[in-house]
Each structure stands twice: as C-alpha cells, then as structure tokens.
Design a protein that fits this description.
Elements: H1 3-16, H2 24-33, E1 47-48, H3 70-75, H4 83-103, E2 111-115, H5 122-130, E3 147-153, H6 156-165, E4 169-171, E5 173-179, H7 194-202, E6 206-212, H8 228-257, H9 262-279, H10 287-290, H11 295-302, E7 312-317, H12 329-341, E8 344-345, H13 350-357, H14 361-370, H15 377-388, E9 391-397, E10 402-408, H16 413-420, H17 422-426, E11 428-435, H18 436-442, H19 445-450, E12 454-457, E13 467-473
Helix pairs in contact: 1-14, 5-13, 8-9, 9-11
C-alpha cells in the first residue's frame, strides 16, 4: 500500500470519529468486536479481558521474549540483542531475584521507567503503549508526575490453547511502564525536575531510555541540536552522580560500623570499589563485566539498588521515513554505544506507533503492511522489557479461560501455584506439566498423556516458560 492509502486511512479516522475524544478509536474498535464479557459458546472465539487501563488490545501480537522458547522461533521474532547484552541482563536478573527472595518481594509489581531528555518522544511513546493520553505538549517538563500504564504482553500461544480448550476468555500477562518527567543537566543537584525524576526512577526496575534520532526543525531540542550520544551521556552522567552521592553516604554509614562488624567492613571495601567506578563516570552495572569485583561481591553492591545498576534498553526514536529498517546514522551511533556497555537497542517511530495505536485492528495492519512491518516496534519493546525484568509465564487452560501467569524466572512449582491461589502453594502436592508444543501436537491433554508427554513434577521443579500446568493440592 502506498502513502496515499495511509492518507485515506488517516482521513477516515480524522473525520469518522470525534477529534476531541482520544479514546474514541479504542471504544469504536471494542464495539465492532463486541464488548460483552459474557461466556461464549464453545464455537465462538474467546473473549478478551480488558484491564482498568486500556492495553494494547489490537497491536501486541508478539511472543514473549524468552530465548529458550520454541514458539518464539516459530513466530519469527528475533530481537536485536548482542550476546554481551544478554549476559548483562541475565546477571542483573539473577542478582535482583536473589535480593527479592531475601526480602520476600515475590510480587510481580515490576516496572520499566521511560526516561529521556525533554521533547525526545517519551510521552508519545507512552501514549502508544497504553492508549492513555498524556500531556505531550512541545515544551520541557510537560510530564510533571509519572504516568503509569499497564500493558498486555500478547502471547499467540494463548489463542491456540483457547481454541483447543474452547475457552470462553483469554487473559494475557501484563507489564508496567512509567512515563517519568524529562531530565536536564544538573538534575543530580535538584535542577529542573531533578529530585522528582531521581525519586521516580529509583522506584523502577528497568530503564527504557528514549533517544531522539530524527531531525525536525518544528520540534525543539533542549540543547538546540541533535546529538544522540550527548543526550545519552547527559542522563547517564546525572544518574551516575546521583549514585555516587548515595554510595558516599552508604560508605560513611558503614565506616561507623566497620570496626566492630566484619560484614560491614567487607561491604565497605566493596562500596569503595563502586565509588571509584562511579567517579570514573561509569555505571554500576558495568562493574559486572569490569573484573573489579567477584560475583559475590557484586551481590553486596546490588543490594543497595543503585539507579545505574538497573538494566537499560535504548529506544532510538526515528521518523516514519526510516521504516521498516529503522536505521540511520543516529541509530548506528546508539547501537555502537549500547554494544560497548552490553545494553539492548529497540528502535521505534513513536509518532507512527501512536498513530497505529489509534486505529482499529484492520487499519492498523494495513498501516504496518504499508511500511513493510509485520509487528510494531512496541511489540518488540514490550516483549524485551518483560524479559529484561526477569519475568516469564506459565499457562493454564480450560473451558472457562486460558491464562498466562507471570512469575520470576527460576521460580519453583509451589511458587507458581501460589500465583493462582495461596492455598495451592500451601497445600502443594505435585504439578502436572505439559510443554506447550507437546500439547498442540497431540491436541488434548489426554492424548499427550497417552503419548507420555505429560510429566508429574514435585516441589523442586523449576517452571519453564510456556509450561501448561495443572496443580494438585490439598
């Protein structure tokens, strides 16, 4: 489809719905599909379940980003991830999960913070992610309070399971994104909205760093020029300075205890290494690959949850003209920078994504086809963020519903059972586990069991992404 066709779609939507109602496209689409959540007959398609915050009900058709999932390869999803980035994220996930288990924090309230300089496209991206219209005016500090949105992680496996089980509804996993106020130089000293920014970002578990990678004289830049690496370094330096101040305060407190406390003395030495590292304007997360600390020593550092210890996904924001390859000289600079620190890069066109998010499903697919895309950039960003947060899903399926349950990677069977109901964990007996591929191959659980593809697992079983499970409990 040529650009004239996209113009026709824009024309239909601009004149066919009230321009002052940002949620009209969402409601219209829902009306066309049918908004009733009443049980469907077995022959009817499964109904979607909508959250309190409208999710990406039409767009997100990607697989969960888990490197061991066979269904992911079948879907053709291949994220742009270097092996160094994968190793860095894995180590961070392991440290965070150990910390969460020590603290008893096994809830799934993990969030990805969207950050960037003013006017780089953060709020436009957030609007597309959640279909929640935020103030995206063209001036600095338009995002004063963090906006939080919950989005679905669409999983094509659930649709197939719902078909096999004649499920009445489908419930997808979700993840949380937070749009955080724009940052400027001096934020670590409280300039601009610095204190608010730093406070909000400390509450997240992953950083999605939006970087402007397009020229447009009509959209101002806080520094008056487009330089993605400088933009990245402005924010990174402010975060490093904030962590340095925090590390120095920690060291001062530990120093008071070190004489009579061996653990405090050992931790102090490790924090001193972190201070030296931060003083060299290097993020804490790069300590993992620097060789300066042993794995156990880095675990001592990670307990303090420094901002720069969080994994980062760089999100170059490009023009529609750069689709479908989403590549230009600016993006190449970001890729080189990210590769050096072991981070991931997911380029998008925030303006294009926001426009697609306002269309019904049919027109949205036409838009994607017109630029040679089978998935949106949001598909890849959401899936990669879910994976980077150390999350995965197991599945349940029956006539009532087919559902994806979110758990931390490495969770054992009783913990997974507890996600469904606390009584399941307390009275756990065993888990009846079938791999998704095996269930699809044989069509029913009974036939899969006859073929010897259903396993009985105990309390020590580590749940795998895509396991279809029936729990037995007292």
């Amino acid at each position: 489809m040529e650009r004239q066709s996209r113009a026709a779609i824009r024309e239909r939507h601009s004149h066919g719905s009230p321009s002052d109602d940002p949620d009209h496209a969402y409601r219209s689409s829902a009306a066309r599909r049918g908004s009733s959540c009443a049980p469907a007959s077995p022959r009817q398609p499964a109904k979607r379940v909508h959250g309190t915050i409208p999710a990406l009900c039409m767009l997100i058709s990607c697989c969960l980003a888990n490197e061991v999932s066979g269904w992911r390869r079948q879907a053709g999803f291949t994220p742009s991830v270097s092996s160094a980035a994968e190793r860095t994220l894995l180590r961070h996930q392991q440290h965070r999960q150990r910390r969460q288990r020590r603290q008893g924090e096994l809830s799934m309230n993990l969030a990805a913070g969207i950050v960037g300089l003013p006017n780089v496209g953060k709020s436009t991206l957030f609007s597309a992610l959640t279909k929640k219209q935020v103030d995206a005016a063209n001036y600095p500090f338009c995002t004063i309070e963090p906006n939080t949105g919950i989005v679905e992680v669409r999983d094509p496996r659930l649709s197939k399971l719902a078909e096999l089980s004649s499920s009445q509804k489908i419930v997808f996993a979700t993840t949380t994104f937070v749009d955080i106020a724009g940052l400027v130089k001096g934020a670590s000293k409280g300039e601009g909205l610095g204190n608010k920014f730093l406070s909000n970002i400390r509450g997240t578990d992953l950083i999605c760093h939006v970087v402007r990678c397009f020229d447009d004289e009509h959209i101002t830049h806080v520094d008056g020029k487009i330089d993605p690496i400088t933009d990245i370094e402005i924010i990174n330096l402010e975060l490093i300075l904030a962590d340095l101040q925090m590390a120095e305060n920690i060291a001062a407190n530990l120093n008071k205890k070190a004489k009579n406390d061996k653990q405090a003395a050992a931790t102090l030495e490790v924090v001193k290494v972190a201070i030296e590292h931060l003083s060299a304007e290097l993020p804490v997360r790069s300590l993992q690959t620097s060789g300066k600390l042993k794995e156990d020593d880095y675990a001592l550092v990670s307990q303090y949850d420094f901002i720069t210890s969080k994994p980062v996904i760089y999100v170059p924001n490009v023009k529609e003209e750069d689709l479908p390859h989403m590549d230009n000289e600016y993006v190449r600079q970001v890729r080189e920078y990210a590769e050096a620190e072991g981070s991931q890069v997911i380029p998008i066109s925030a303006k294009f994504e926001a426009e697609v998010a306002g269309l019904d499903e049919e027109d949205a697919q036409e838009f994607l086809d017109s630029v040679g895309l089978d998935k949106t950039g949001l598909d890849r960003l959401i899936a990669t963020s879910f994976d980077a947060l150390g999350l995965m899903t197991f599945l349940t399926s029956g006539e009532q519903e087919s559902r994806a349950w979110t758990i931390l990677k490495g969770s054992r069977a009783p913990q997974a059972a507890g996600k469904i109901h606390s009584d399941f964990e307390k009275g756990f007996i065993r888990a009846e586990v079938t791999a998704y591929a095996d269930l699809v191959e044989h069509g029913t659980r009974v036939k899969a069991k006859e073929a010897g593809r259903v396993r009985m697992e105990g309390k020590e079983y580590v749940v795998q992404d895509g396991d279809v499970i029936v729990f037995h409990h007292n």
